Each structure stands twice: as C-alpha cells, then as structure tokens.
C-alpha cells in the first residue's frame, strides 16, 4: 500500500537556517546605523569647530582691512601666548573641542607698473602696491587629529573700508595684460584720429560729476576717457589703452592736510607724467626726494561741496624749483616772485595772492588703479566745426558733418607733424601754428554762415560743436621716445621715408581732442539778434547740446563766439544745479567762470560762428534759383560771382535759392554743381579667399558667398541748363575735367556761366544717367559659421569712385 503526503503540508513553517540568516542581517543593519550615528555626531562637531575657526579668520582679515595699511606685517599667535599683539580670542581657546590652536599671518607685498609681482616690502607709499595676507589656522580635535584652515586676501593702501582685490591666477605669479573687447566705443560727438600704428585714438564726450549740496546738486568735476583701440570686426573694438580722466576744480586750504589716516593719504606725490607709452608717477633723483607739496600739507577746504578727488588735488599740486612740474608752462605775472603763487578771489572777483585758502584745478588720472594728479593738460587749439543740417535746415544737429570730422582729423595730424621741428632742438615745445592750419581755406574747416530764414520761431534752435585739441607738455622721457622713433628712419625702420611724420609721432604723443561744446563759454556778439544759451548743463545728447545753443530772434548778422582757457580750468566745471522752473529738468543756477590765477583768465582760445537772420538771410543781394530736372538729385549747389563764393540754400522741397552780392540786374556770374550721384547697394556673390575665417582655419568656407550690401554708384551727368523763368543767357555748362580724372567720381563738378540774368531768374538743370560704377571691391571681411550655414561680413569696401 502506497502513502501520499499533501503538498500544502510540505510548505508550512521556517527552518532554523532561515531564522539564523534573518538575525544576522538585522544585527548588521543595527550596527551600521550605530556607526553612522557616531559619524554624524563627530562630523557635526567638526563642522561646528571649523565654522568657529572660519569666523575667526574672516574677522581677523576684516580687522586688517579696516586698520592702518602700514601696520600690516607677518606674525603668529597661539592660545598659550599672552604677548601683544594677542589675536586669538578667549572664546576659541576655551572651546573643549579645539586644542593646540595657533594662527600664522604671512604678508607678501606686490608692486609694479604695467603688471604686479611679489617684490617684498615697499616703503614708498606712493608706489602702486598691495599686500597679500595669508592667515593659516591649525588645531587639534578631541581625538588628537590635526586640522587646518587657510584664508587669503589682497589689501590696498587705499582701503579705508573693505577693499577686496581679485588675486592673480596663482599666489606666485603676476597678472598679465587682459584683452578687452567691446562694441565700437565711438559714439556721436566723438572724433577718432587714426594713429600710425593701425590703431585710433578718441576721447569720450565729457560727463559731469555731481555732488549733493544741501537741497541741490553741484557739478564738481568733468569726466572723460581717452581710448586707443583697433577695429575688432563686426562693429567691435579691441581696447589697447584706456586713460580715465577727471578734471576737478577745488577750494584748498594751506596746512589742513590729513595726518591721521594711512600715509598714502597725506604723503604728497610728484606728478604723473607721460613717458612716451603710458602715464607714470615721476621719480626724482634721488628717488627719496620729497614732493614739493609735502612741506605745505594742503587739503580741501572744509564745508565745501566738491569732488572727493580734491584730497589729492590740494595735497599734490605744488611745484618746486626742480624736477617735473604740475604746471611746467606757467610763467610769472605781475606781483609774483616765484611763479608758483596760489590765488583766491575777493568780493570784487579779483585775484589775490593767498597763503591760506586758494583755488586750484587739477587733472586726475588713474595710474595702475590709483588716482594720481597728472601734469596739467594744455589746450593747443579751440575751433568750431560745421554741424549737420536736418531736412536742409542749417545746424539742426550738433554732430559735425562727415566732411568736417575728416578735415579735423587731418588738421590734428598735420599739427602733430610740427613736433618734428621742435624736438630737433630737444625742447619739445608745442607748435604754434594751430590757428593758421585750421583757418587754411583749403581745409574747409571754417563753416559758412548759418542761415536762419525766419527769426524768433519757437524751438528753432541751431546747434554748434566746439572742439579742443589738447597736448601735454613733453618731459624728457617722452621727448626721447619720439626722437628715437623719428631717428629710426631706414627703409625697414619705425619711421621710414615713405611714412608720414605724423604717423611716426602720433602713437607716442600725449594728445586728445575733446568735445568742448558743453564746457566752453558762449557769447553772442549782438544779443538783440541772437539768443545764446550760456548755462551749460553738460547734456547727455551731443546732437542737441545745451552749450552754444542758438536762436535767431531778430533780423541781422551776428557772431556766436565760443572760448575756453588753455589749461585745466578750461575743462573743469563748477556749477550749482537745481530745477528752478519745476519742469523736471535740472537747470544751472550759478556757474563760476574763472580760472585759478590771472593768466588763466586772460589767456583764452576762441572761435566764432557767423549767423545771418531774417529776410534775405545769406546775403543782401539779388537772388536766382536752380531747379533740378531728370534723374537724380543735385545735393549741393554752389555759385560764384566775381571773387565771392557761398553756399546756396537748399530747401526740403522746391527750388534752390542762391542769394548773390549783386545789387542790380542784369546779373552775371557762375554757379558750380556737385554731388550729383546716388550711391546704392546690391546683392553679389563674392570670393572668400581673402577674408578672416572665424573658424580659425579648422574648416574651410565655400569659395564664394553672397552679401546684400555691395555698393554701386548711379553716376549722373549734366546734359543741359536752360532759363525757365525770368531772363538770362547760359554761356557754358562744362564739367570739370570732363571724361578725365574726375569723370565717374564723386568729386566731379560742373560749372555753369551765365549773363544778363534777371532778379529771381530760374535756371533748370537737366540730369541724366551716365552709367553705373559697380567696381567696389572688398578691403576687409570675415566669414563665420552658424550651425551648417556660412555667412560673410564685409567691414570695409574699396570704392573707386571715391579715389
């Protein structure tokens, strides 16, 4: 007989082995949790200790930053030490979790000019320097394990409050010169001047520094940057040099200099001078010679709202009998014995030599990160440039015309070339021919009279543009630098015979051209004819500046004259500002219009702009008219009668009116037509071989790419001139150099002679298309790739019609 066991009875209950395995797993887990809890408790205690040590190190570093720079030195401290200085607080030493606590403080002094290096202690507070402080804390925990924590910070001698500086890449190497790229820095109102090394120089439009003065504000300084840059492509620029400038006007007091702050604040310094490549603080021989201002201990007058930079201005701007000077071109005037006297103004506005309170104007420039008082800047020329018409109305914008900017740039270069002569005698004095160069009629810099047809029209403001050319005095180092460049005149030298002298000189000449429109003083010759704004506010809109803004209010002729002083005070602005009419726009209430000494007020540079206001504006003679017919537009019409030549008035619509000097009809003379061409753009496929490849050569672009802005010229010609109203005889219509050097060029002109013309005769000029010039070629271009698409950008074209 066979027995059978139920399957369900075979699966009931646990075996002894299974129970043992479960007990082992549970015990292991419980032991792991116990160990984890212990680790967490230990880590929490260590974190608490490390946080307390970190707080101590941060507090110690903050204390060093807020304390005297000169007293920062290496040292150490422990809980066991009671000898001063005792850094370690009792709260750290009594903590049971911290044992054998000690702190080591190491100090490395970094100094330099263009770059910084660890040079060791520097005793001269005038040197560009900072101290790198390293605090290393070490301690043991309750188990005897060692721990450490380290903090590093750089402390500047100018650090009155927390003043962290970013360290270089490592603790043992100095920082290199960074590559600074930005959008093209040239904005409206700026005029770049090309330097001979492929870069350009331009000064930004001046901006005011404002300071609170009671319930109002006061303009206490003028800021601008001088930039050297090269085009970076696609509307960008690589900044090579940037010089931050501020011109401040200060009220100073003898004997009131600071003595209870860091020594750099009360140690007078020598001027920052141009060395030929950069601005640097002058080092006398011997180097330990104190600056002349050290014996004066001058400082800003208390209770006066003025720039914080007046601390440096009042302290430093004092000249001795030797060494570099702040005002090297100053000469003595009546009543002076040294030529270094300081002045104040009495209640009558007269200059009085002062040994207590005095007026000073300084140029402060950033050198190696510190504000330094620089040698005075000197204005070599002040001139007015032709401003841009809007809708054929003269001077409706304060931006100079393109032709005026180009002509002014050439003027600056030609003036700079004159230094070759003065440097030959090792004097380096500034050439004195600036006015003659500017007024040369061939340059076209002297603008024609601004015509205001109807006087006293609301908001019919006309805008001017005043331009100052400034060149520093050349100290010995700068003279030598430029002379060495000029002497290196071999064919493969720095200044070969084929290179214009200004291209050799300009990169090493401390020059700038500044938009002076908002800074200059403006005066109407006849204020019954012209209303001129004299309360400049330094508007942020150079196309509609406050300075020199002019409106014709009555019929007649008058001049608006702009003027400026030749040195620092000509650039400084000191004025009270408030909204006196409650229209939300600040107004200048008072503006102090004087310099710092008698010669400063009597040595002025000026230029005048003529205005013709009212009926017959532009002349008092008879008129004739030009009417354009056919293709194109005569952009500019000029006429000449005898030896007189002026611009005709081109309205937005209708005929061109030319007012002559003839007082009786019939009239005879000539008029010259120019600019009868139209430039346009078209699409074209262009080769990429000569372009810069932004893929850095890793990928080759296509052989040709399409651009949409290839220029072409719609070339026109004059085919006929007839009298369509009134009477007159056209004697000739002859293009200048017809079919010759200027044919097909933008410089082509046509001169028309006429006789027996009645008053208000209308000459109709017929234009026809002569042919298209499509030969523009690429001068500079780049190709780039976005995804799978290549594109080509042309930054410069060669236009044969402009040659």
From TrEMBL:
Pfam families registered for this protein in UniProt = N_methyl
Sorted keywords for this record are: Membrane, Transmembrane, Transmembrane helix
- Segments spanning the bilayer are 14-36
Using the UniProt annotation, give all residue ranges assigned to the region (Disordered).
320-342
Classification via InterPro entries: N_methyl_site
| Positions with biased composition (Basic and acidic residues) | 320-330
Q: Does the keyword Transmembrane apply?
A: yes
Record's NCBIfam families?
A: IV_pilin_GFxxxE
Q: What is this protein called?
A: Prepilin-type N-terminal cleavage/methylation domain-containing protein
Origin species: Agrilutibacter niabensis
């Amino acid at each position: 007989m066979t027995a059978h066991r139920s399957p369900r009875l075979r699966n009931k209950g646990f075996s002894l082995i299974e129970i043992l395995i479960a007990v082992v797993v549970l015990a292991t887990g419980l032991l792991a949790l116990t160990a984890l809890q212990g680790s967490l408790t230990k880590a929490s205690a260590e974190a608490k200790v490390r946080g307390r040590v970190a707080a101590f190190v941060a507090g110690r570093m903050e204390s060093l930053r807020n304390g005297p720079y000169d007293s920062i030195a290496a040292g150490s401290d422990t809980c066991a030490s009671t000898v001063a200085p005792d850094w370690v607080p009792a709260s750290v030493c009594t903590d049971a979790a911290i044992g054998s606590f000690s702190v080591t403080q190491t100090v490395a002094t970094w100094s330099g000019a263009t770059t910084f290096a660890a040079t060791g202690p520097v005793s001269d507070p005038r040197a560009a320097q900072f101290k790198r402080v390293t605090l290393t804390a070490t301690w043991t925990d309750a188990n005897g394990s060692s721990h450490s924590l380290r903090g590093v910070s750089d402390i500047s001698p100018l650090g009155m409050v927390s003043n962290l500086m970013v360290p270089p890449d490592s603790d043992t190497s100095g920082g290199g010169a960074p590559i600074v790229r930005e959008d093209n820095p040239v904005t409206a109102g700026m005029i770049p001047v090309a330097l001979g090394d492929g870069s350009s120089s331009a000064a930004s439009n001046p901006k005011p520094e404002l300071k609170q003065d009671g319930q109002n504000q006061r303009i206490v300084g003028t800021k601008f940057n001088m930039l050297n840059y090269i085009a970076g492509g696609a509307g960008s620029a690589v900044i090579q040099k940037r010089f931050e400038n501020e011109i401040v006007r200060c009220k100073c007091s003898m004997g009131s200099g600071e003595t209870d702050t860091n020594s750099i604040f009360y140690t007078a310094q020598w001027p920052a001078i141009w060395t030929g490549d950069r601005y640097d603080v002058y080092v006398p021989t011997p180097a330990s010679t104190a600056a002349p201002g050290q014996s004066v201990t001058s400082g800003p007058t208390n209770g006066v709202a003025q720039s914080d930079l007046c601390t440096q201005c009042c302290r430093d701007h004092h000249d001795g009998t030797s060494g570099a000077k702040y005002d090297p071109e100053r000469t003595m005037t009546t009543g002076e014995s040294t030529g270094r006297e300081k002045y104040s103004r009495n209640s009558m506005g007269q200059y009085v030599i002062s040994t207590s309170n005095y007026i000073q104007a300084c140029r402060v420039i950033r050198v190696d990160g510190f504000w330094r008082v620089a040698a005075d800047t000197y204005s070599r020329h002040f001139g007015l440039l032709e401003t841009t018409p809007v809708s054929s109305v003269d001077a409706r914008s304060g931006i100079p015309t393109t032709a005026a900017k180009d002509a002014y740039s050439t003027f600056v270069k030609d003036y700079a070339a004159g230094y070759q002569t003065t440097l030959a005698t090792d004097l380096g004095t500034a050439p004195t021919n600036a006015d003659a160069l500017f007024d040369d009629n061939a340059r076209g810099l002297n603008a024609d009279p601004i015509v205001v047809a109807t006087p006293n029209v609301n908001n019919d403001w006309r805008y001017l543009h005043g331009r100052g050319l400034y060149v520093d005095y050349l100290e010995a180092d700068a003279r030598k630098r430029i002379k060495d460049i000029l002497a290196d005149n071999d064919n493969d030298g720095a200044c070969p015979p084929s290179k214009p002298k200004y291209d050799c000189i300009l990169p090493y000449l401390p020059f700038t051209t500044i938009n002076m429109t908002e800074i200059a003083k403006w005066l109407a010759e006849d204020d019954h004819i012209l209303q001129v704004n004299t309360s400049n506010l330094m508007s942020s809109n150079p196309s509609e500046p406050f300075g020199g803004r002019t409106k014709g209010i009555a019929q007649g002729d008058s001049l608006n004259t702009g003027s400026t002083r030749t040195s620092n005070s000509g650039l400084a602005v000191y004025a009270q500002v408030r909204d006196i009419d409650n229209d939300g726009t600040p107004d200048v209430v008072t503006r102090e219009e004087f310099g710092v000494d008698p010669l400063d007020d009597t040595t002025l540079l000026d230029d005048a702009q003529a205005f013709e206001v009212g009926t017959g504006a532009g002349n008092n003679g008879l008129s004739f008219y030009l009417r354009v017919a056919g293709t194109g537009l005569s952009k500019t019409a000029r006429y000449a009668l005898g030896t007189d030549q002026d611009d005709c008035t081109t309205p937005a619509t209708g005929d061109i009116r030319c007012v002559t000097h003839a007082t009786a009809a019939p009239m005879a003379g000539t008029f010259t037509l120019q600019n009868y061409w139209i430039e346009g753009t078209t699409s074209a496929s262009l080769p990429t071989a000569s372009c810069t490849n932004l893929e850095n050569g890793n990928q080759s672009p296509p052989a040709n790419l399409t651009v949409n802005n290839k220029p072409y010229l719609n070339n026109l010609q004059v085919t006929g001139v007839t009298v369509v109203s009134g009477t007159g005889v056209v004697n000739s219509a002859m293009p200048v150099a017809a079919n010759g050097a200027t044919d097909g060029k933008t410089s082509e002109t046509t001169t028309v002679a006429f006789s027996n013309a009645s008053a208000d005769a209308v000459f109709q000029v017929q234009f026809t298309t002569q042919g298209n010039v499509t030969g523009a070629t690429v001068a500079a271009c780049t190709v780039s790739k976005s995804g799978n698409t290549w594109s080509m950008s042309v930054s410069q074209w060669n236009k044969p019609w402009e040659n």
